[in-house]
Amino acid sequence: MRRAAWFLLAPALCAQAVPEALTAHLKATAVLHADFTQTRRLAALSRPLKSSGSLVVSRELGVLWRMAKPLPLTVAAGPKGVLEVDAAGRRKLQTTKDTPMVARMGEIMKSLLEGRWSALDGLFTVKGESGRDGAWTIHLTPAPQTAAFIKAVRIRGAAFIETIHVDEPSGDTMDLTFFNFRPEAPLTAEERRLLSFE
């Protein structure tokens, strides 16, 4: 939080021409576990929608998103597509062949969490700023074909991605905060099974 506050108060940040250099260390983490909170503010609702859970990013297999509240829901996104598992254990698989757009969104999320900004070429213009103590901010400005869905994205972090803020053209917003990072924890057998769509 103090780092985020510093970003708001800092008088100047140094613009960087190569965002990949700012976050190159993110690619060195083979597996990352973390917890998250998500807050969506919708123009049509007076109160925000909040959810929380845990996240696993595997450089080899993909992203495992496990919402615990308000309702349990697991989403695994990998090279094969996207797998959803609800609280009752019902599985819904969307392969890259069946739903290429959904699979593409999963790949975008994985690229974003790994700091592979070059994978977003053609979808966003990427600019970066560096701060103190290894902190950085990445700004994504959508290309014309993406602008219908996203107005702007701002990502902040240091050793890992800490926050993601998304502005949508409708005026809706989404904020993700990541914490309790566990880069040393290996994949469990269940996580590997889910990410392998088994």
UniProtKB/TrEMBL annotation:
Residues 1-17 form the signal peptide. Pfam families: LolA. The keyword Lyase does not apply. Keywords: Lipoprotein, Signal. This is Outer-membrane lipoprotein carrier protein. The keyword Lipoprotein applies. The lineage of its organism: Bacteria, Pseudomonadati, Acidobacteriota, Holophagae, Holophagales. It comes from Mesoterricola silvestris.
